[in-house]
Design goal:
Length: 621
């Protein structure tokens, strides 16, 4: 028997996931919109925030609601019909959904990625009827969102605890299963579409009793083909595939008409071989020491402690080159082009202090961070981050980063739509087994009324001072690369600069890449990214793991840089793609055709002793 909606306090469901929601939001706030940040959110909480919650669904369609409370809205007939039709389609792939119980139906606001604005959607959520109140976060469930006006589907997300795994699908498996699902769902062939770019995902959910399930998925985009060539980021669909090839979610937007006359004719493009040669002329390799942990990817947003395993001496590219124009073979810097080799950098000699800070509790974190860095964490609320604490087994027996998250106390009477300034927050990272403090992220919050920034030299000095106490107690060389924020970036001629918000091009921090050097060779990741407030020089971000220089491999590389580059290039493939450049909310008058390197086969580094590619791999169960 289904539970009448009149007995579901919609609020009761929200309360269940509130802690997970806040933990996910704080993690994202603390680390920015990064893969790790995204993975750290609970799928249930994260997707619900954006109107695409993970849940469980069933043939118990949206029209089969018993005991509808009078105050609740119901979809209009035509809208409800479309919703039911899509739910029935998805149920064909998952027959067990026919036994699910309707938990939640709501007409609510949902963030829309395309416009950046909130829009109304119909949100439907189903759950395993055997799930108890305590077990709901880790129960089998599925959710859907539908367009407010016409009932067209926008997303579905499924959570099956029996599929929990830290394994990613291989790129080939992800594409195969996504293609198969797309063709069956829409009863169409892929001649006009292509499963294209993929990017990581992940989820975790925790019950009241601390029970945890963790799993991974890869999100693949379905792109449209123009003249037989995919248009990047053009498809209105993305499909989530887990490590076993199960489809666990889909996001859908409205397909727009495309003027085919604007697309350049690909017949006169240069050959892939010519594109590869042009790429090789731009590409640079670098010899460096790399922590073994950087070559092993635990997955599910787990951040391992660096430096516990032996260092590797490797070559890797130190430049990310823009896609190459398919007619000229030249990179287009208006898309993206970043190389540390061309950034301002200095080598400085410093005397480390060999210091360490250990924190075994929230109180110790507050006290020691205040004493060492002057940050008033006592004025902030502590928010437990179960996704970094990993209270349950995570199938990865390695030292991990434990994160303490703090957020500013806010007046609950203030309307959240009226709050425009950022809150103060902090994230303090410690090693899970020793409690050693290895990182801090701090946001001052409030509105920025500052006008006079400090000099780059002063900011660099401040950044070095931040990490100096935690370097080895000896004289050490540092390579400091300036990542100076763009104050007057160059834009293509089609960009109307008067329409670009000042806040979009000005940053309130100055950042640096800092690498210790040993025998002139940089050590990657052990210090890394450090940033300070561009007006005060106060800490914003730093990471510093202990370094034992005596444990670094001393042998000189056997393989030359040129040979390493040749091996790496042999692994690269190139494909043609149309790209329609967009900067903020402005789009170029027409698309362009590019060669884009496919790094799938070259995903890794070159061993400096053997010359072989060391692939990035995941820890196994």
């Amino acid at each position: 028997m289904k539970l009448p909606l009149s007995q579901l306090s919609g609020k009761s469901f929200r309360v269940l996931t509130a802690g997970v929601v806040m933990a996910g939001l704080m993690t994202t706030a603390a680390y920015g919109n990064t893969p790790a940040g995204v993975e750290a959110k609970s799928a249930l909480a994260m997707e619900n925030q954006v109107g695409a919650s993970t849940g469980s669904e069933t043939r118990a369609t949206a029209s089969q609601m018993e005991g509808q409370a009078p105050e609740r809205e119901t979809p209009p007939g035509p809208v409800q019909k479309k919703m039911d039709e899509f739910i029935a389609k998805i149920s064909q792939f998952y027959p067990e959904l026919n036994q699910m119980k309707l938990l939640y139906l709501q007409h609510e606001a949902s963030y829309q990625e395309e416009s950046g604005q909130a829009a109304r959607v119909w949100y439907v959520h189903y759950i395993d009827p055997r799930a108890t109140e305590k077990d709901r976060p880790v129960a089998y469930q599925v959710s859907f969102t539908f367009d407010d006006k016409d009932g067209s589907p926008q997303s579905f997300h499924l959570q099956n605890p029996s599929w929990a795994s830290l394994e990613d699908p291989s790129p080939s498996l992800a594409k195969e299963k996504a293609t198969e699902f797309f063709e069956k769902l829409f009863e169409t062939q892929m001649k006009d579409y292509e499963v294209g770019d993929s990017f990581g995902g992940g989820a975790s959910s925790v019950s009241h009793e601390g029970k945890q399930i963790t799993w991974r998925y890869t999100r693949v985009a379905v792109e449209r083909r123009i003249h037989g060539i995919p248009l990047q980021n053009s498809g209105p669909w993305s499909i989530d595939v887990d490590g076993s090839g199960n489809i666990v979610g889909m996001n859908i937007s409205k397909e727009t008409d495309i003027d085919l006359t604007r697309f350049p004719d690909p017949s006169s493009a240069i050959s892939p071989e010519s594109a590869k040669k042009a790429f090789a002329d731009q590409m640079k390799m670098e010899l460096l020491y790399m922590p073994q942990e950087n070559l092993n990817k635990p997955g599910n947003g787990i951040d391992p402690v660096l430096g516990r395993q032996p260092m590797r001496l490797v070559y890797q590219p130190n430049v990310f080159i823009s896609p190459l124009n398919a007619f000229t073979g030249k990179p287009d810097s208006t898309l993206y082009n970043f190389t540390t080799a061309d950034s301002p950098q200095k080598t400085v000699q410093v005397k480390g202090e060999g210091k360490a800070i250990f924190c075994a509790s929230v109180d110790e974190v507050r006290k020691k961070v205040k004493a060492e860095f002057g940050l008033p964490l006592n004025e902030l609320d502590y928010i437990t981050d179960e996704l970094h604490e990993k209270p349950g087994p995570v199938n990865v027996n390695i030292p991990k980063i434990h994160t303490y998250n703090f957020i500013e106390k806010r007046d609950p009477s203030r309307n959240k739509e009226e709050v425009t300034e950022l809150p103060r927050y902090a994230a303090v990272e410690v090693e899970s087994d020793t409690g050693r403090l290895v990182g801090i992220r701090y946001q001052e919050g409030g509105k920025n009324n500052k006008t006079q920034p400090i000099s780059i030299d002063r900011a660099r000095e401040k950044a070095i001072q931040l990490i100096l106490p935690y370097l080895p107690k000896e004289t050490i060389s540092l390579r400091v690369i300036d990542l100076v924020p763009l104050t007057s970036p160059e834009y293509p001629e089609w960009v109307d600069k008067t329409k670009i918000s000042k806040n979009d091009v000005m940053e309130d921090r100055i950042s640096f890449l800092i690498n210790p050097l040993y025998n002139g060779i940089p050590i990657e990741g052990m210090v890394g990214f450090v940033s300070v407030d561009k007006y005060t020089g106060n800490i914003v971000t730093y990471h510093a793991f202990p370094i034992d220089l005596k444990k670094l491999p001393l042998d000189k590389p056997v393989v030359t840089l040129e040979k390493a580059k040749e091996t790496y290039l042999q692994k690269l493939a190139f494909e043609k793609k149309y790209i329609w450049p967009k900067i903020f909310d402005q789009r170029a008058p027409k698309p362009s055709l590019f060669y884009i390197p496919d790094f799938t086969a070259a995903s890794g580094v070159i061993d400096a002793y053997t010359g072989e590619l060391i692939p990035y791999v995941q820890y196994k169960k």
